[in-house]
Amino acid sequence: MNVERLWSVRERAGVHAALGEPARLAIVDRLVLGDLSPTEIGRELGLSSNLLAHHLKLLEQAGVVERSRSEGDHRRTYVHLRPQSLTGLAPMGLRTAPRVVFVCTHNSARSQLAAALWARLSPVPATSAGTHPAARVHPRAVAIARNRGLSLARARTSRVDKVLNDGDLVVAVCDNAHEELGPQADDRLHWSVPDPARVDTDDAFEQAFTEIADRIDRLAPAVHLPGDSDD
């Protein structure tokens, strides 16, 4: 057995071992569709801070989850699944929504790319908005969309309070927007995607696009229009 294959088997075994405990599997279930802070995870699952820290440490060691510091409130951290760590994991907790609204601070890159990617995969309508919208969509976002067969040529920025309707599933694709929108709600998900405009390089926008695409692939099969059935 070659070394690469041996490590692959060991890593997979570590993931299975980490998920063999009900509390850790429950943590992963809640992170499949969106990111949460440790406090939010502990509150949802009724876990003490010490026990939660233990479970998160084991999941991190197995390469299943990682943490990032909030770009908004720097005192906060968010836990999210590592890309490809659970390839093929079925989304838990199917949702119904008449529309999905992707929200970031400026509505100039991440939320615009997310809405465009969503439209390619799901029949559920989608749009985007910002808590403090910029004057225009970022040129690098337009360029990366074009390179991936998407078009943001007609995209315009909008304020979130002018866009949201009752029943919308809101996906905050940045920490600042998530924190501005207030406490986590059942009709909102959070993706802690770093702002590529802060770095303002092609690589930063490529990385953001790849992360958003991975998350869209996970979420799209789990969201259905009201009244739709898989039967």
TrEMBL record:
Which organism is this protein's natural source? Actinocrispum wychmicini
User: What GO molecular-function term can you cite, just one?
Assistant: DNA-binding transcription factor activity
Gene3D superfamilies according to UniProt: 3.40.50.2300, Winged helix-like DNA-binding domain superfamily/Winged helix DNA-binding domain (1.10.10.10)
Q: Which UniProt keywords apply?
A: Arsenical resistance
Q: Name all HTH arsR-type domain ranges.
A: 4-98
Q: Name one Pfam family in it.
A: HTH_20
Q: Which CDD domains match?
A: HTH_ARSR (cd00090)
Q: Which GO terms describe its biological process?
A: response to arsenic-containing substance
Q: What SMART domains does the database record attribute to this sequence? A: HTH_ARSR (SM00418), LMWPc (SM00226)
Instruction: Please give the name of this protein.
Output: Protein-tyrosine-phosphatase
